[in-house]
Specification:
The structure is a single chain. With about 450 residues, the protein is α+β, with helices and mostly antiparallel strands. The chain has 3 domains: about 30-205, Sandwich (Immunoglobulin-like), CATH 2.60.40; about 210-315, Orthogonal Bundle (Neutral Protease, domain 2); about 315-445, Neutral Protease, domain 2, CATH 1.10.390.10. The chain is about 30% helix and about 30% strand. The strands form 6 sheets. The chain has an 8-stranded mixed beta sheet, with no helix packed on it. Strand 22 (about 275) and strand 23 form a beta hairpin. The protein is globular, with a radius of gyration of 21 Å.
């Protein structure tokens, strides 16, 4: 069984749809950041967000999603000191209502101490070690408005970001021995000062590295770089090759890769094998050390995280309330990579085994359960990732390859650069299905 790439006419149509459906830059908020990392490992930041209220907003809400303590020092709205508060560690409320379509400009001064990796919460995506400083979401993020502010709790497992796309400009000041890598495009102004720009990003993540090497190549018009410690060049080369092939395959199946570059960086991670950001992938250092003893899992990490550039970065969703929407798609898309390279049986066997294991650990959770239904992550990967992929594979077998792929591309084209819901994905699948798919959905979803 082999899923064939889309024909040339479909690629032309996809490219046209990209051109027609790009969200105009004036409709996106803009983030301007000034960041400075001091010798005491305190990140000083000033953030200015400009945008337009999509509705009548009773206040502005920003989220602190990285889990480290945020010290807010100053808040201005339209250049005037604003009344603000933090009702919990992940929520910053700036008081004062806005009318629908009212423009706003908010400036927030803040400081965050960057903890050692061993002391950092969550995956370690806001943490420092001897050779890396990972600054995932190192700024307050404007919450999403959907008839109210979408502000789910920040948990220690799973992904915590729910965000619209935005345009970013950042100036970063770091000690000169550190190299800045980001999900945008970097330009070194002088030693220790880097300017970053990125358009259409759901978030901007930074990684600082020192004593690192890089391997790089092109996948179409995108430059792909694999950053690694010098003694780990073999897994870094494998990471680069897998990412190049995945980018090319997914671009043929769904739509061209949406950014100018992709950086893959090995970093220390905890309770996560890899973490995706727009234009940037983190891969756990432990899996570089284990290479080549775990060839399935290492390849799976890269194929999965690259898939998130379509299912998360391009089409977003609420990763806390509906994590299955992007995780099931990214997992199944990684399976298409394994199918293309003749390794389908390996990944399918892995999904089957881990889904059963996840159900045993958490018998009450379903594929579409929210993140908080998996206390401390119990059964999360097996049920949401592997179970979601098995569900999509059953749907593909019932629908046929072409209707199934048509459903995914229709879903992507309709919701490109926006936030989708599970019902949107299910609607696309049902509309394309030549048979009823309800029995399959009922076995996996609530």
């Amino acid at each position: 069984m082999r899923l064939m790439p889309r024909p040339a006419w479909s690629l032309i149509a996809t490219a046209l749809l990209i051109f027609l459906s790009i969200l105009p830059s004036w409709a996106r908020p803009t983030y301007e950041l000034e960041l400075a990392l001091g010798e005491a490992w305190v990140l000083q930041g000033e953030l200015t967000v400009q945008g337009t209220a999509s509705d009548a907003w009773p206040e502005l809400v920003f989220r602190n999603v990285h889990g480290a303590a945020l010290e807010v020092t100053d808040v201005k709205r339209d250049a005037v000191a604003a009344d603000w508060g933090m009702p919990d560690p992940w929520t910053l409320v700036i008081h004062g209502s806005l009318d629908a379509e009212q423009d706003f400009s908010v400036t927030i001064g803040y400081a965050i101490s960057v903890p050692r990796f061993d002391d950092a919460p969550g995956f370690g995506t806001f943490a420092r070690s001897d050779h890396t400083v990972v600054l995932g979401a190192a700024y307050p993020m404007l919450a999403v408005w959907e008839d109210g502010w979408v502000n789910p709790p920040v948990l220690d497992w799973g992904d915590t970001v729910v965000a619209e796309v935005a345009d970013y400009r950042a100036r970063v000041h770091v000690p000169p021995e550190w190299r800045v890598i980001s999900g945008g495009e970097e330009r070194v102004l002088e030693a220790g000062i880097v300017e970053i720009s990125g358009e259409g990003l759901r978030e901007l993540a930074l990684v600082l590295v020192r004593d690192y090497a890089v391997l790089e190549d092109d996948a179409g018009s995108a430059r792909v770089r694999s950053w690694h410690r010098p003694h780990r060049s073999a897994p870094a080369a494998e990471a680069l090759e897998t990412s190049l092939l995945a980018l090319q395959l997914y671009g043929r199946l769904f739509a061209p890769y949406p950014f100018a570059s992709l950086d893959i960086v090995e970093v220390p991670l905890r309770q996560a094998a890899g973490v995706e950001y727009p234009g940037l992938i983190l891969v756990g250092q432990a899996y570089y050390d284990a290479y080549p003893r775990e060839p399935l899992f290492f390849t799976m990490i890269l194929a999965h995280e690259v898939a998130h550039q379509w299912w998360y970065a391009l089409v977003g969703n609420d990763q806390v309330t509906e994590p299955w929407v992007d995780e099931a798609l990214a997992t199944y898309t990684s399976g298409l990579y394994f199918e293309a390279v003749g390794r389908w049986d390996e990944i399918y066997t892995y999904w089957t085994r881990t889904y059963e294991s996840g159900r045993q650990r958490n018998p009450h959770a379903r594929v579409d359960s929210p993140l908080w239904a998996f206390p401390d992550g119990a059964g999360y990967g097996g049920i949401v990732y592997s179970g979601g992929a098995l569900m999509l594979h059953e749907l593909r077998l019932a629908m046929g390859d072409e209707p199934f792929l048509d459903a995914l591309t229709s879903y992507l084209d309709t919701h490109r650069w926006t936030l989708a819901r599970g019902e949107d994905l299910l609607s696309a699948l049902k509309s394309a299905a030549p048979v009823s798919i309800r029995p399959i959905l009922d076995r996996y979803l609530d």
